[in-house]
Each structure stands twice: as C-alpha cells, then as structure tokens.
Amino acid sequence: MFRDLLNFKIFGDSFGMDLGTSNTLIYAKGKGIILNMPSVLAISSNDGKILAIGEEAKKMIGKTPKNILAIRPLQNGVIADFDITQKMFEYFFSKVQPAHPLLGPKMVIGVPSRATKVEKKAVIDIAMQAGARQVHLVEEPVAAVIGANLPISEPLGNMVVDIGAGTSEVAIISLNGVVISNSVRIAGDEMDQAIIQYLRENHNLLIGEQMAEWIKMTIGCACPSSKEKRIKVRGRSLTDGFPAEIEISAKEVSDSLSSVISTICDIIESTLEQSPPELAGDIMERGIYLTGGGACLSELDKYISKKTHLSVRVAPDPLFSVVLGAGKLLEDKELLSAVEVTTSLD
Fold first, then answer.
1. Is the pLDDT of residue 48 over 90?
2. Contact in structure between 237 and 243 (CB atoms under 8 Å)
3. pTM of the entire structure?
4. Which of the following CATH numbers is that of domain 9-143+323-339: 3.30.420.40, 1.10.599.10, 3.90.1150.10, 1.20.272.10?
C-alpha cells in the first residue's frame, strides 16, 4: 500500500498546445513535443460515433461514403464545432496523459490574436472539461516569437508573419505584447484551393484537397527558378469524367498561388504602414520572421523580401514555433504572467 501511495500522481504534467486548423501539437514540460497530429475526425453521419481521429481520419478526406464525414472542427484557427473539438481534444489529451492524476495538468494554449472573447473562452472550457486544472492563453504571434528565441521582453520591435492553414497573422511585438496585429483568412488552405481551381480551369482536371496539398509541398514555389520542376498529377477529367493524369510545372503552381501570396504581402505592407516610427526602425534593422506551415513554401522569404525591401528570415522550426513558445512559457511563470491574454466576458 505504501508503494502504491509513492506511485500515485497528484499533479498532472504541464503542457503547451498549438490547437491548429490543420494540426494539433502538444509540448510536455521537460520532454519537448510529444504529439503532432492532424486536427481531423471521421464520424458516422448516422449516430455521430467517432470512427477515426488524426492521421487515419485525414487519409479519409475526399474518400468517404455518404455515411461517414471527415471533419476539421477548427476553422481559421478557432473552434467551429465545440462538441467535435471537445471529443478530439479529449482523445489527444488521453494520448499524452493516459493516467488520471488527482489534479489535472497546467496548460498554455496559443490562440489567434484576433480571436474574440467568446472564442477564447471556448478553448478554456474545452481544456477544463478535459481535466486541466489551469489554462493560460497566449496570442499565437507572441508564442511564435518566444519559440523562435527572439527578444520579446526588450523595447525592441519584432515583426512575425505566422502563416497557418486557415489564417495568416502579422504582428509587431515589443515589451511582451502585441503593438499592432492584422490577420486575413487566407493561408495554406487557400493555397490548396487555388491549385485545385487552376487545374480545373486550365487542364479540365478535378483533384482533391490532399492531392493539392501534395503538389504544394512537392513543387510549390513563390518564385520558381529557370530549371523547371515537373510532376505528374492524377485526378478526374472534367471532359469525359474518367480518371486522368497530366504533367504540370512549378511555374504553373507558382502562377496559381500568386493571388494568395499577394494578399499575404498586402497585409504585411499594411501592418508596416501602421508601425510606430521607432519600431519601424527596429524592423528595418532586424527584418521579418516567418513562422507556421506556410513559411515552408519554397522561396516565399525571397518573394516577401523583394516586395517589402526588408530582410526576411524563416524562423527555426517554423511549424513548431507556436508550440515551442507555449512550452517555454511553462518554464517561465513571470513571462507567462506578462504575456497571458484575458478572457473575461464582461
């Protein structure tokens, strides 16, 4: 019995979380990133039963019969379906903490800087219902700056462009807070849709979201080189309805993405125009940092640099910047207190 008492865990582990439109990442204090799964569920349309979650559910997108729905319950970085998100959250939570301690974990969760109070409260409610004892929210651009090891607490301007799946956020951060932020609901998902639309209009070929994402990751480029990369793409012909295969070039993919990238550049330029003069000087000296999955698009940093006439750097581990920042805040109570966002609904 004494041994059982020694093994009994009173406090749960501490976790940092990036609850993203495309992927959910969880960081455990003292362990690092322990979960990286697609934010997708497959459910039965007959009885609402969950059939698959994560990678298995993602593979079902575009391939399900009428009685199965593959759902992404987070849209544009916020909760679109509370009940489904709660089920997904509880599943991920059970993966990282299968035991049930007397007191649940402390959690630091990233949220979009433009999230409403209701949207922020929904995140807290889901985490608390899953068993968390404390939930702290931090704006994703702030977490990204911390995760990229930039000097957030100094009177120094840092400009971060976080390009996720559903939202692109641009923020100028100084002295532990967001000075200016802008966001647009155009990001990685819109890039995929742009590729789908291009192939439909120019090649009479219909492809799905997963094929579009694969094309983007394989030969997607903001400004392709003279050496043309080409790949074969399979889909359904809109001419006769039969399966078809075509070959497309990196330039074609670049052309299809141009309007999306241009919109992201517009919001970067708009944010720069709103910047206080002193911080503008810092940004001119330090440049712009790109984070999020969209930052991995080939040559995007060079394209934005050409448009803004500023140096542009891709942050180390851009896919993990937010969750790494949330994880670091678990270790620094003073900084967490300084950057945490309020959620009161009064």
1. no
2. yes
3. 0.90
4. 3.30.420.40
